[in-house]
Specification:
Elements lengths: L8 E6 L3 E10 L2 E11 L9 H13 L6 H4 L3 E5 L5 E11 L8 H27 L6 E13 L2 E3 L9 E12 H13 L3 E5 L17 E6 L4 E7 L2 E8 L3 H11 L4 H12 L5 H22 L8 E5 L6 H4 L4 E4 L8 E3 L11 H10 L8
Parallel strand pairs: 1-4, 3-15, 4-9, 10-13, 13-14
Antiparallel strand pairs: 1-2, 2-3, 5-8, 6-7, 6-8, 10-11, 11-12
Helix pairs in contact: 5-6, 5-7
């Protein structure tokens, strides 16, 4: 019996400089890209507006021909939010039991709750000190245990084991409640059916196109770059740099007589090796000051990690990758289970998070908004 195609779904990635979206549909054991869209924000300083989102969604709906547009507007959506409004952090937590006795099912639940509460308290207090934001102003979207240990020994389950010292590494995903409420209102106004708001930390490294045992993953966005530290094939830590591909565009804007849009286009031509050698050298010289800023931020972070991986629009800038010997860009073309007739998207690393989100959706996804 021929398996029926599943309903299409939307992946929406709201960045600090651009909005990306994909409409995809599963058919048997493959997933097909029906259409995609990338639009730059009208004003990156102000962030993504409702008009920016509306324009992007209108384009991605019109770019496909297999489904009626009105039907597509009812599809479920996975949404990735910009790192300036949406955060993920890990916390190392521990508790001490009263005895070494075997852990029962009831005590296991109590241990899990204590660890999760400890992680929330730890992260919210750290965040409050950094940003001056009260813990009660945060909204928690996901909290999950990445690693468990009893008396220093790793294990997958607490129940049935003996030991006194409980340790866990916990991933927290959260947002400012005021920002989240504003976004929810925008999504409602646009009639978006949100299945889940998703942070890249929730699909790294499991749903990347290649297996990464140890290394650093750079998501080089517009105005922010997120770093994911992987050790023993597990997420260890997340950091954010307050710079990205946009900063290079600004160097051109401030040194040449071009508009911001023209400066961005010139940077992209430089990244794609489309400029004459003389012009490329001039651009490279302008970028030297920005490279120095990157160098200062990066060199202290990469200690102990040899392998470095990149995605995001800024990943195409060789000036960002020059600091590393063993490096690789993760492109959409590396996802073998996802098919597309739109060949140009296969070489656009700014869509790699969307492709990872598609693979993430293969698992049972619970609504969180």
């Amino acid at each position: 019996m021929k398996k029926k195609e599943e309903n299409p779904f939307l992946v929406l990635d709201i960045g600090t400089e651009a909005v990306k979206s994909i409409i995809a549909q599963k058919n048997k054991d493959k997933i097909k890209i029906l259409s995609y869209s990338l639009n730059y924000l009208r004003d990156p300083y102000l962030g993504c507006s409702k008009d920016d989102l509306a324009n992007n969604l209108d384009e991605v709906f019109r770019n496909q021909t297999s489904q009626p547009i009105e039907k597509l507007k009812e599809v479920e959506a996975l949404v990735l939010l910009p790192p300036e409004n949406f955060y993920a952090r890990t916390a190392d937590c521990e508790i001490e039991r009263d005895s070494e006795s075997k852990i029962s099912g009831e005590e296991k639940e109590s241990i899990l709750q204590k660890l999760l509460n400890q992680a929330k308290t730890k992260i919210s207090n750290e965040f409050s000190k950094e940003k001056g934001i009260l813990p009660e102003d945060l909204s928690w979207l996901n909290i999950k245990i990445l690693e468990k240990q009893i008396n220093g020994y790793p294990l997958s389950e607490f129940k049935g084991y003996k030991g006194k010292q409980i340790e866990a590494k916990i991933l927290t995903v959260f947002a400012l409640e005021s920002c989240l409420n504003t976004l929810k209102k925008t999504f409602e106004d646009l009639n978006l059916n949100i299945l889940k708001i998703l942070h890249p930390a929730e699909f790294i490294p499991e749903f990347l196109p290649i297996k990464i045992e140890n290394g650093i993953i750079f998501d080089v966005g517009g105005r922010k770059t997120q770093l994911f530290f992987i050790r023993a094939n597990k997420l260890e830590e997340i950091k954010t740099l307050d710079r990205g591909g946009w900063n290079f565009s600004e160097r051109l804007f401030n040194n040449l007589t071009f508009s911001r849009a023209e400066s961005r286009e010139l940077k992209e031509e430089y990244s794609a090796n489309l400029l004459t050698p003389e012009t490329a050298v001039k651009i490279k010289n302008i970028f030297e000051a920005e490279k120095k800023e990157w160098r200062n931020d990066i060199l202290e972070l990469k200690s102990g990690f040899e392998n470095v991986f990149f995605f995001g629009g800024g990943a195409l800038l060789k000036d960002v990758r020059d600091f590393f010997d063993r490096k690789k860009i993760l492109f959409p073309e590396h996802f073998k289970k996802i098919l597309t007739s739109k060949k140009e998207i296969e070489k656009m690393p700014q869509f790699t998070p969307c492709f990872s989100a598609i693979m993430f959706k293969e698992k049972n996804v619970q609504k969180n908004l």
